[in-house]
Design a protein that fits this description.
3-stranded parallel beta sheet; 6 helices; globular
Length: 180
Amino acid sequence: DPVTARATSSVLVGRDADLAALRDALKRARSDEPTTVLLGGEAGIGKTRLVEEFRRHALGEGVRVLTGQCLELGEEGLPFAPFVAALRDLLRGDGPAAFDGHEHEFARLLPELGPAGPEGLVDANRGYLFELVAGLFGRLARERPLVLIVEDLHWADRSTRDLIAFLIRSARTAPVLPPV
């Protein structure tokens, strides 16, 4: 059996302008300018590698980075999947206290937070859920700059797209950067 080797490199080649644009967006977010970046392109051109390089840079500057990924489940896919993953990142890194007394509300999305609040509190009121997530991200961003990375947005379900649109529209002066 022939052995196949795959070469990898820690050097990012040919993406200096793209990486500079992401770093510039982070600089604007640090200056309290709400910033959103949409990174697109054909499969295999290095989007994930570029985002990972930017992520390392942001973490090196003390930025909080939360990451979630949309799943290829079709239009009726898993609602809020990238936000659940990002919130799990937060829970793993900062513990339940990061949810600032709203653990019961967020337990509808993250059962590991414990028993959920009153039935339907989050499920029936998307506006409340959206405000809850926006409030959490805003508070986190006041502590230190926040980058939310949502990968594979083209697979997002309707609820995820609606929450992303809400967060972008409602971003005020907090240093939040959600590149999607």
